[in-house]
Amino acid sequence: MSDTATLEYKGKKIEFPVIEGTENELAIDIKALRASTGIITLDPGYKNTGSCESAITYLDGEKGILRYRGYKIEDLAEKADFLEVAYLLIFGELPTKAQLDKFHNDIREHLEVDEDIKKIVDSFPRTAHPMGVLSSLTSALTAFNPSVVNINSEEDMYNAVVKIMGKFPILAAWTLRRRNSKPYDYGDSELGYVENILCLMFKKPNEKYKINPKVVDALDKLLILHADHEQNCSTSTVRIVGSSHAGLFASLSAGVSALWGPLHGGANQAVIEMLESIRQDGGDTAKYMKKAKDKEDPFRLMGFGHRVYKNFDPRAKIIKKSADEVLADLGINDPVLTIAKSLEKQALEDDYFVKRKLYPNVDFYSGIIYRALGIPTEMFTVMFALGRLPGWIAQWREMRLKQEPIGRPRQIYVGENQREFVSLDKR
Ligand code: SDX
Predict the structure, then answer these.
(1) Burial classification of residue 295, based on how many CB atoms lie within 10 Å of its CB (0-12 exposed, 13-18 middle, 19 or more buried)
(2) 3-state class of 338 per DSSP?
(3) Residue 1 binned pLDDT confidence (cut-offs 50, 70, 90)
(4) What confidence score (pLDDT) does residue 191 get?
(5) DSSP line for 150-217
(6) 240, 404 Cβ separation under 8 angstroms
(7) Bridge-partner residues for 18, per DSSP?
(8) C-alpha distances in Å from residue 354, one per residue of 142, 312, 340, 343
(9) Percentage of the chain with pLDDT > 90?
């Protein structure tokens, strides 16, 4: 007998089923609420509302747990590579060597885009933010690949997946090349997936791209750590756009736009800009801690706090350790790392942050590593998108395979009651 919850309103009692997830999470199933009571729930920001049942990612914000398809993020970051994790997220199982090789070879078939895409890239000002360019190019990709709009079979789905896994890094890299006035490059299909991302971004027109294994390993780990995070803002965007049966590329384009925001994926760029401004202001971290706590001051400590994690973001722990290793490996001494550690130490001992359970999140240290890898600040959120791509794909695929209904929330209207029209000459 499944558990139930009873709602009592104006003397009427209604029972609703309580469902339990694999990790014993509980939810009141309110699918019948409006039909049986005429009442809806109200939950701005969906802080208490589940949008779906998903088998992809599990996280426990109180315990600081994150798992992709049941595997601990710590194990995947240490023992797997990004393409393996992408396969795991999208298809549900760690691939065999043969499956992984086939996946990579099928992706290699799509390591190019229509040459007319270059005309679209060229139409943007060189100063355009790469996330705005990437969102536009991802949507434009549909025009050159119309077959990916109507996905009616597993084969259609697989073809759309390997297409976007191959083409998205090219679009991302070309946003940087446009800014730097560099020729658009198609990379090298002989390279590994992550090696080729670096090649696409940085290969000089007249030289063979020189691989630095330490840089590849650091980026591979960062992409794994960003690969999925259940129903975050951008993933929910990808799901709701896809729920209208818009194509995969159009849904991903919307996800890129949602990720751009500084409260979400744009935080990694905002963190470095914040640390840099503190450094230029003499490194007075106490002054900025004070500003972060002042309700009258719009300043927030970027890279701190999280909607779900009320404990350390497990990804932040791994990235912080990796930042120390990468800077040491590359012989870099970045003064903003010292400032970041000072802010973290102060926040972890400050009642304002402790009471609100504000800890460093995935974005707090990631920018320090991207900077050490030679990636420009305005490209940090594009790197986040490159990591989140397989997660977005996996969530979109799950939503479509389960034939979820179109997403259409209700509202409580608080505007004017009905009133009579007044003609212009009488207003
Ligand atoms: C990502 O959802 C995901 O999974 C996202 C993500 C992913 O992988 O997809 O993990 C990636 O987006 C990480 C978050 C990156 N954003 C930032 O670092 C921006 C700074 N953080 C905040 O803006 C904020 O913490 C959010 C947006 C992350 C979470 O906001 P919530 O859950 O809506 O919480 P809130 O804004 O209601 O804050 C609760 C309290 C408030 O104070 P009171 O009104 O209770 O007095 O905490 C305060 C806030 O003012 N607060 C902060 C703060 N974050 C929250 N105060 C100072 N500095 C901060 N960073």
Answers:
(1) exposed
(2) helix
(3) low
(4) 97
(5) S--SHHHHHHHHHHHHHHHHHHHHHHHHHHTTPPP----TTS-HHHHHHHHHH--TTSPPPP-HHHHH
(6) no
(7) 28
(8) 46, 11, 17, 13
(9) 97
Starting at the edge strand that comes first in sequence, how are the strands of the sheet with 71-72 ordered? 57-60, 65-68, 71-72
What torsion, rounded to 10 degrees, do the Cα atoms 262, 267, 273, 275 define? 140
**Mean pLDDT computed over 308-329:** 93
- What lies within 8 Å, CB to CB, of 298 at 6+ separation is none
Of 307, 380, 386, best ligand 1 pocket probe by most atoms within 8 Å of the beta carbon = 307
363 is known as an active-site residue: yes
- Residue position matching structure tokens 């290793």: 325
- Residue identifier of the C-alpha nearest atom 20 of ligand 1: 302
Neighbours of 405 (CB within 10 A): 8
15 - beta bridge partners?
6
Task: Give residue 45 CA to ligand 1 midpoint distance, Å.
Answer: 12
How far lies 266's CA from each of 23, 131, 137, 138, 303, in Å? 31, 9, 19, 18, 10
Identity of the residue numbered 266: G
Ligand 1 surroundings by CB, under 6 angstroms: 45, 229, 232, 263-265, 267, 292, 300-308, 356, 358, 361-363
Question: Which residue has a Cα nearest atom 16 of ligand 1?
Answer: 263
Residues 17 and 399: their CA atoms lie apart, in Å, by 22
* Total Cβ atoms within 10 A of residue 174: 27
Residue 307 C-alpha to ligand 1 middle, in angstroms?
6
Using the mean position of ligand 1's atoms as its centre, give its distance from the Cα of residue 47 in Å: 12
10-53: per-residue pLDDT in tens? 999 999 999 999 999 999 999 999 999 999 999 999 999 999 99
Note the pTM of the prediction, 2 decimals.
0.96
Cα(18)–Cα(205) distance, integer angstroms: 60
From residue 113, give the alpha-carbon distance in Å to each of 32, 71, 141, 338, 391.
47, 34, 8, 42, 22
Q: How far is the CA of 9 from the centre of ligand 1 (A)?
A: 34
